[in-house]
Amino acid sequence: MKTYIKPLIWALAALTLTSCEDFLREEPASFISEDQYYKTREDAINAVNAVFFFLNAQPGQTPYNVLFNTGMNMAGDDEDPGPGATNPDVRSLSVLAHASTNLRVFEIWQQHYSAVKRANVALEKIPEIDFDETLKARLLGEAKALRALFYFNLVRLYGDVPLITEYQKFVNAADYAVARTPSTEVYAQIEKDLTEAAAVLPASYSSPDVGRVTAGAARALLAKVYLTKASLPLNLHANYVEAVRIAEEVISPADGGKGMYGYALQEDYSRVFLPAYKNNSEYILSAQFKSNSMSQGNSESSRTIMSGVPGLPGNYAHMVRYYKKGDDPYFSIYKLYAQGDKRRDVTFVRHFTSPSNGRKYGIAFTNPPVPGDSVVFWNKLWDPDVLSTPAQSAANVHIIRYSDVLLIHAEAENELNGPTAKAYKSINIVRKRAGLPDLEPGLSKDEFREAVYLDRRLELCFEYSRWFDLIRQKDASGKGTLVRNLHEAGKTNTTEKNYLYPIPQSELDNNPLLTQNPGWE
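The structure assignment produced for this chain is given below.
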């Protein structure tokens, strides 16, 4: 019997070990591994939705939900941190006293590259999924357009940046080190992505897809890219030709263009911003917000509201900048609007009415040169339907809208050919809606340029555009105006180094191939 017992024991042992191995092998239950995902049409849609997340997500700050204000626009000449903005990184940046260790400088970099990574994942994984080819092409086009937008922001803020267009999934940390790519090459990729996206994206969407990237949005962004390349710091003048051409592919025939997207200015400027009218004919691409729905509201709104108003929670973190000009110690962008400019009283309010007691609350100035002067507050993201929860405003944040394209066209046409009839037509469409008289023929090229610059500032203020304009615009001699403009606004810390943000110090520490921008070493 012994001769049979040993084999039986070994057989039982082997069976037991095999059974234990099977029993101990776990399939992940709390998460889905990458190999299990990216299999279906829904997975492909979710992959692109994950890129959109970085436009407007909550909680926290994402580029088009607060971060571009606290990390960029407060450095300009129109905005300041208010009493409710106590973060020292925000306050140091607002007076151009920040360093490469500034948290907001890092967050803008980090959030943009996180979005780029998600776009790269979508662009690699979606082609492998078997589903409708038309939808597949559209989703890939959206991913490319969004990647282009995020790189466009990065290259304007930081200059030469690492250009990563593939999904990185290395084991060794050293493999993630990527050197800076010349900005001209980054722009070439941006142009390629937007051109390819425009070729496959639809002209419009129906519900529930309204708000996604369209062909018109890709072309409008491309026109802005060409205008920026033609401006400072690259100063590649030939790109004005493409800026004019692409802008005219977006501008509707009624306004002198060839675009068939149905874009038109809203007759009432307030309807551009009020949530009840959002995604209208003037909208081209916006970060979408929805009130009181899984924290999808626009938290910027509550930051512009004066604190202490009963029934209207606000922390007054974002305020209009005031500075001395002439004999007025409280000058601001508000006073740049001409009398009768309909944009002024949509962009700003002088007081808030308490929903609890009906009283009006504001802040008066003792300003002898301007009797009755008072503080004004930003108003573009106001949502009258969520007074008790203004941090859940449903107001969208415009990334690019039709008036922007008209002003891009006017500026590029003027730089290319002088103030032609086409250039006058585009700027006067914007001015007419504002209730202003037309600019009359006879302006010089330099005078027309200054007129466009002013209308851009007034039309697009508090829409994350001012800093990008400050760092690219020039005077009649071709010299940049950033330092002059900010010194005039009292920000005397501004120097030539501020044309670029510093590369975040933590990125330099982790990536030995990166170098710092001039003046920030």
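Interim note for the steering committee: Confidence is low (pLDDT under 50) at residues 1-24. The chain has 17 helices and ten strands.
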